[in-house]
Amino acid sequence: MGFTVTRISEGPVRPAEPTPTGTLPLAWIDRYPTHRGLVESMHIFKQADEPAKVIREALAKALVLYYPLAGRIIEPVPGEPVVDCTADGVYFAEATANCSLEEVNYLERPLMLPKEELVPYPKKEDWEVEPANTIMMMQVTVFTCGGFVLGLRFNHASADGLGAAQFITAVGEMARGLPEPTVKPVWGREAFPNPKLKPGPLPELPVLALDYIVLDYTIDYLNQLKAQYMERSGKRCSGFDVIVAKLWQCRTQALNLDPEVDVKLCFFASVRHLLKLNRGYYGNSIFPIKMSVPSGKILSSTLMEVVDLIREAKEKMPAEFFKFANGELTEDPFGMTFNYESIYVSDWSKLGFAEVDYGWGPPMVAGPLVNNDFIASVVILKAPAPLEGLRMLASCVTKDHSEDFVRQMKNLA
Q1: What is the CATH classification number for the domain harbouring 119?
Q2: % helix, strand, coil for the chain, step of 5
Q3: Fewest CB within 10 A of the end CB: N or C in the chain?
Q4: Helix (H/G/I), strand (E/B), else coil: 83
């Protein structure tokens, strides 16, 4: 299409003031092998005035309190990475696109610009730090319409989704002129349990050639399903519960497995409330909720009965977490198996990214870049403005099953 992105500056953004030095320990969960990777996301804003300048300056201010994020991950003892507070800075790039957001369909999928042009992928000579040791990278790309995209890559070892959103929110507050972040950061990684359980090895990853699907669900439809559940059970459920139940059932139907084959669902829940963590804690504080049910049971159940299964699994999570915390589990609960019968769901709808404001209002859409061929996965996030409801980014079925899956997911009966 002739659309291009040109980087006009790149380099580290360091804290605006001197910060503490030395090393900080990571929690057991932060050190987990699967967390030593960079999570990629795009945050799309319709209008702004010199966003790169504003965000760069705000980032430097926010890093004064969040100084560990300006450091590097090192591993002085094998298997025990720590953060070295070097103040070497966050990689930051400024770029321009030769088109408007409208011309690239506001970066709806399929992307009309390669993701590698919108999220930072510095050359080795420009950024010598290995990705596993880099904590955070940013790129601001300004479009001819005056809108911009913030491309973010953050190391999962440094923060979970809530923690990363907490930091980006702080950058937004600095950009709007607040003297300090509303929420003061707390490192405190010793607050997360260290059960002396050896983390499992990295799982084998199959090649599945998954299709990429985007589906939106209105708030009215979600409320309708939630009302049905309330009428049937007398209990409340969330929009996440009902849409994941629908996902699990429709995907199982599309896969057409033998009834006795187990289909597995996994998602992660926050345990901040269980550990009574300080509000400013921004490290990983999640625990997996795993479910394994015969295919036939999922298909013979009503949608509301599948919601029951999800609700019951969520209710059991605290007891399972405290067994883990007290060292009573012999198997690593974070150990994962990736096969086509398993699906992994991430909920980004309440993390806080969709509310970040650098001075020009919240983003049209903010969410991860998910498109791989080895994990059947779905991300739930807020539907882009002006829609109200939830968006589902699904990379969970092959092309053989895609048409049937989409048809069933779009059936709102």
Answers
A1: 3.30.559.10
A2: 30, 25, 45
A3: C
A4: strand
Same domain, 13 and 147: yes
Between CA 31 and CA 152, with CA 36 as vertex, the angle to 5 degrees is 130
205, pLDDT greater than 80: no
pLDDT of 371 higher than 70: no
Report the C-alpha dihedral over residues 235, 162, 214, 256, rounded to 10 degrees. Answer: -60
Does residue 201 fall inside a structural domain? Answer: no
**Is the four-CA dihedral 93, 98, 104, 106 of positive or negative sign?**
positive
Residue 97: exposure state from Cβ atoms within 10 A (0-12, 13-18, ≥19):
buried
Hey, how many other C-beta atoms are within 10 angstroms of the C-beta on 312?
Answer: 10
Question: What is the predicted pLDDT for the residue at 22?
Answer: 97
Task: Give the structural domain span for 175.
Answer: 5-191
Mean per-residue pLDDT of the chain: 94
Residue range 14-68, pLDDT digits in tens: 999 999 999 999 999 998 887 888 999 999 999 999 999 999 999 999 999 999 9
- Mind telling me the catalytic residues? 156, 357
